[in-house]
Amino acid sequence: MFESAERDPVMSKDDFAAREGALRTALLQRQYALLEKADRTVLLVVAGIDGAGKGSTVNQLNEWMDPRNIHTLAFGTETPESAQRPPLWQYWNALPPKGQLGIVFDSWYAPLMAEASSKHPDPDAIAFLAAEIQRFEALLAADGVQIVKLWYHLSRDAQAGRIRKQLADPATAWRVSKADRLVHKRYDRLRKAGETVIAATQSPHAPWQVVPGADDRMRMVTTATALLDAFNRKLPKVVAQPAQVGAPAFVLRSPHASMPAAMLPTAPMSPESYEVRMDAAQARLGQLVRNKAFRDRSLVLVFEGIDAAGKGGAIRRITHALDARQYSVMPVSAPTDMEKAHPYLWRFWNRLPTHGRVAIFDRSWYGRVLVERVEKLIGPEVWRRAYDEINDFESQLQESGAVVIKFWLAVSQEEQLRRFNERAETPFKRFKLTPDDWRNRDKWEDYRKAADAMFERTDTVGAPWHVVATDDKRQARVQVIEAVTNGLAKALGKRGL
User: Fold this and answer.
1) Quick one: 237 and 267 in the same domain?
2) Tell me, what's a Pfam family for it (predicted)?
3) How far apart are CA 446 and CA 469, in angstroms?
4) How many domains does the chain have?
């Protein structure tokens, strides 16, 4: 795999001069074409052995191209903010929009490389990390991100010589890190680890290319050529979907939730019983989120359901129990232009809470398999893939300490019509009623089928669906807040609180 790079090929000044002008011109032209068309994001992942000239090459790329449309993304030591969210959060958060080029240092490959290069690498850990990377890259590639992965390598002697040369010059000595100095001692282990990483994460939609790093000119021309080839290629088709790569971290519930079960008639709750149970549930929820155990957790609440099913009323009963500084309510509607310029899940990754906070989504990432499916805004291959993408997303939330609780609020057609008419006749409620609400009634059966498929594919043990009948608002609101308190108490180990 590395034999060619370890021969340390050299490019003469004349050969470099003959190619430099054409490469620079072509890269600039393709960069501006990408910016104008904005049909994809190009992500250049820079990895490889320390001391192989990665930083110098990226600096020169910024000189050859227009740096205003290049995002150089460097991820080093974990920050307190990123430590409270899933490991991939920082990469999602920094992802450039379509039309832009992102260059990634210290990428999602760092944990895998660290494990593979340890004295006693764990094959299971390597397999897990590689599968997570495969799912992540497949999701990005399927949603408009072209991934170009370059692994920089050189021989042991060339690496040591390059470090000595840089240390001898005060102008470049600052570039030499502690890791650079130690490479020659760990060279064989790092080389083997590199082979393991590349073999475990090679894919048609995100292939690796090895770049010889000993000679500055050869390294630069190889890098520029690889990037230009990527610019000139069509966005690759994703062959393996996220669910097919590695073992998923979620387990579906059996039997799964269903909407018909929630539509059975229930006895109306009396105002007196409602007040007693609601007050008790709100007090309990307030205690739970102030508990010391919640400082290392977060709470993510998802509300979906039929129009006029009472999502807003249920959410207000929850927020009444919380400190306004501790929660965020995020109504989700049609994506903005900036959100459309990123992969679908990007806008939700950007809204994840830190520990000790509550995020409430009034509609959510499930729009992909509901409204976008029913309204035919996307093709079947997209919404079918989305089930496992969503499950994987929620699994990552749970692994980082989030408690995920999902609600589907169901209302009968008769009660929905009554509420629509009430809204139309009440001045301060008219804003809630839109032409889309009436139009969606005509697609009732389509939404029911989409919801049932969603329950079947995303009702997981870790993030189950709670399907709540809402014809009786009091009954529904109490069921919702008690489900929140019970779920959070169980996660915190505070059953008796």
Assistant:
1) no
2) PPK2
3) 19
4) 2
